[in-house]
Write a sequence for this structure.
C-alpha cells in the first residue's frame, strides 16, 4: 500500500509542475465502452493508438487496459508501451488520474481527487463511476508514489498551471453546484492553491461552448510557457463562442500571474463548428443514464486540447481550414519540440481530446 499523507502539497513544499517540465511517463486508458465510443470503440482505439505512438517515440507510456481488451490493445500498440490491467469506467486519464506534484529536491508525490463523472447525479456523464474514482490511487500505488487524498471533487482537465504558482480554471466548472456545492469560491481557491502548490488562481467565466465537462479549461485556455496563454478563439461574431472567448480575453488581458507578469494571449481559432453526423450518432449504444450522442449536436472542438511531452507536442487536427494555422502557431510556441498531428475527430466524438486522454508523470524520485 502506498503511503497516504496528511496535510497538503503546498504545506509540504510541493507544487504541480508545468506540462513542459521533464516527464518520466505518460498514462492513458484504452477506450472500449460502446455507449460512449461508436462502433464498439474500434475507431477510437485506432485514434488512441495514434496518440500513444506519437508519445512513446519520445517518452515511456503506460496504457491502462481492462482484462477483456488486454490482448487486443497489445496488437495495436508498439512493443515499448507498457500495458497494465485495471478496471475503469471510461478512458479519461486526465480527469481520473492523479495530479503529480514535486518539491525542490525532485521528490514525487500525487494528489488523488474525488471524481464524480463530471457532475455526479446532477448532470454527470455516466453512472456508476466507482472504478474511475480509484484510478488515481491505483496509479500511485503502482508507481510507489505517496498520496494525498483530497476531499474535493476535481478533474485534472479543469485546471492548468504554469508551474510557477499560477492556476487557470473556469467558474463554469469549479463553481458548478454539481462539484463542491458546500464550498465558497474563496474556499475552492484555497484548496486549489494548497493541493497544487500555487499562489494565484485566474478564473475564466466559461469554457468552450457546449463542452459537456462544464467548461474544462484544458479545452479552452492553457499555458504554453510562463506568461503565455493559448486561447480558443473565433472571429465569427454570430457564434456563441465569440462572447465566451472575448470575456476570457478581457480577464486574461487584465490579469497578472503569481509572479506579477502580464500575460501574452495567443488565439487559436476553433475548428468547425463540428457537428455529429447521423452515421456517427447511430454507431453509439444508447443506455439510460449515459450522455446520449445525437445527430447534429455541436461538439466542443479545440486545438488547445493537446499534449506537451518531452520533445513533442501531440496536436489534434480536424481536416479543417484552421488546422494549418494551429500547426504554425504551435511551431512558434514550442520551437524545440516536434509537433505531431493526430486525427482529433474520433476522440472529440467521445467528449474530449488528446489532453483529456493523457496524464503526465513528472520525472522525480520516490
Ligand atoms: O475531459 C474530458 N473532456 C472528458 C469528457 C468525458 C466525456 C464522457 N462522455
Amino acid at each position: 500500500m502506498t503511503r497516504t499523507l496528511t496535510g497538503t502539497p503546498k504545506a509540504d513544499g510541493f507544487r504541480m509542475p508545468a506540462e513542459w517540465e521533464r516527464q518520466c511517463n505518460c498514462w492513458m486508458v484504452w477506450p472500449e465502452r460502446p455507449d460512449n465510443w461508436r462502433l464498439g470503440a474500434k475507431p477510437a482505439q485506432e485514434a488512441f493508438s495514434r496518440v500513444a505512438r506519437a508519445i512513446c517515440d519520445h517518452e515511456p507510456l503506460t496504457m491502462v487496459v481492462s482484462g477483456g481488451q488486454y490482448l487486443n490493445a497489445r496488437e495495436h500498440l508498439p512493443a515499448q508501451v507498457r500495458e497494465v490491467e485495471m478496471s475503469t469506467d471510461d478512458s479519461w486519464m486526465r480527469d481520473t488520474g492523479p495530479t503529480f506534484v514535486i518539491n525542490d529536491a525532485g521528490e514525487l508525490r500525487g494528489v488523488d481527487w474525488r471524481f464524480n463523472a463530471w457532475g455526479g447525479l446532477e448532470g454527470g456523464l455516466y453512472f456508476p463511476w466507482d472504478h474511475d474514482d480509484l484510478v488515481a490511487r491505483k496509479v500511485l500505488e503502482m508507481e510507489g508514489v505517496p498520496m494525498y487524498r483530497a476531499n474535493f471533487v476535481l478533474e485534472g482537465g479543469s485546471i492548468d498551471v504554469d508551474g510557477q504558482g499560477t492556476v487557470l480554471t473556469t467558474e463554469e466548472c469549479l463553481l458548478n453546484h454539481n462539484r463542491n456545492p458546500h464550498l465558497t469560491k474563496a474556499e475552492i481557491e484555497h484548496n486549489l492553491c494548497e493541493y497544487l502548490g500555487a499562489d494565484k488562481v485566474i478564473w475564466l467565466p466559461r469554457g468552450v461552448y457546449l463542452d459537456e465537462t462544464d467548461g474544462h479549461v484544458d479545452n479552452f485556455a492553457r499555458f504554453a510557457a510562463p506568461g503565455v496563454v493559448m486561447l480558443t478563439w473565433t472571429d465569427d461574431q454570430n457564434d456563441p463562442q465569440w462572447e465566451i472567448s472575448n470575456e476570457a480575453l478581457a480577464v486574461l488581458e487584465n490579469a497578472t500571474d503569481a509572479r506579477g507578469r502580464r500575460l501574452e494571449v495567443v488565439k487559436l481559432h476553433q475548428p468547425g463548428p463540428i457537428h455529429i453526423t447521423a452515421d456517427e450518432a447511430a454507431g453509439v449504444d444508447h443506455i439510460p443514464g449515459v450522455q446520449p450522442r445525437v445527430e447534429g449536436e455541436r461538439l466542443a472542438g479545440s486545438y488547445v486540447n493537446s499534449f506537451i511531452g518531452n520533445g513533442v507536442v501531440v496536436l489534434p487536427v480536424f481536416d479543417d481550414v484552421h488546422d494549418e494555422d494551429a500547426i504554425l502557431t504551435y511551431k512558434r510556441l514550442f520551437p524545440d519540440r516536434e509537433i505531431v498531428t493526430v486525427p482529433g475527430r474520433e476522440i472529440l466524438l467521445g467528449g474530449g481530446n488528446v489532453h483529456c486522454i493523457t496524464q503526465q508523470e513528472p520525472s522525480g524520485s520516490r
Q: What stands out?
A: Residues 8 and 195 are 6 Å apart (CA to CA). The chain has one domain: 23-362.
